Amino acid sequence: MSPMGSPSLDIHHWLVLEASLLAACRHTLRLASRHTGVPAVVIAAVALVLSRRIVRAAARLALEVAVVVAALLAATMLGWISW
């Protein structure tokens, strides 16, 4: 536990977590490369493109949901709809 009393504020904890996630990604990349015979660079490039597309789609969805929630709240405040 950190001196501040919260484990979420401990930088060492986050650095260890980041190192473990990077190691897991490297291991998975090597395993996929060995299993498929496709070079690791190609697998990494495909994963990067797919993850970028997923993040963009998720961001777009989150924006749409936020707009609809704001519209519903405004309509409720104006008395146009009631729940």
Which characteristics define this entry?
single chain, mainly alpha, 83 residues
Sheet with the most strands?
A: none
Shape: elongated
Instruction: State which percent range the strand residues make up.
Output: under 5%
Classify the helix fraction into a percent range: over 70%
Radius of gyration: 22 Å
Order of helices and strands: HH
Q: What integer is the average pLDDT?
A: 86
**Which segments are poorly predicted (pLDDT under 50) over 5 or more consecutive residues?**
none
Distance between the termini: 45 Å
Derived from helix and strand composition plus strand pairing, the structural class reads mainly alpha
Gist?
With 83 residues, the chain is mainly α.
Written overview of the protein:
The chain has 83 residues and is mainly α. It is 77% helix and 0% strand. It has helices at 11-36, 40-77. The model has no long low-confidence stretch (mean pLDDT 86).
Question: Can you lay out the helices and strands and say which pair or pack?
Answer:
Layout: H1 11-36, H2 40-77
